[in-house]
Amino acid sequence: MKTMKEIVEDVKDIIANEYHTQGAENAKIKDSDVARELGVSSNNLAIAKTRGKILYDELISYCAKKAICINTLLFNQTPESLKGTNKLLAFKCLMY
User: Does residue 88 sit within a domain?
Assistant: First the structure.
């Protein structure tokens, strides 16, 4: 499983690709941009990175909003790689 630091870098790449398609090719993506996308404060994101804490709820919501497979962020697995096999899957049960 990836670390939160690695996941943040992947989210930065996703944001950069979105900016690129909108014409902002030279935009510098910062941790504060990732925090905004995940719906957390920059301070909370920095603490999570430092402590090695994965922000599962925020990542799940972000992936659902952007139609991204959570396994791509957590395990670097593409959806195609999971077809027909019993590979490692990420599931998060939300209790209400």
Answer: no
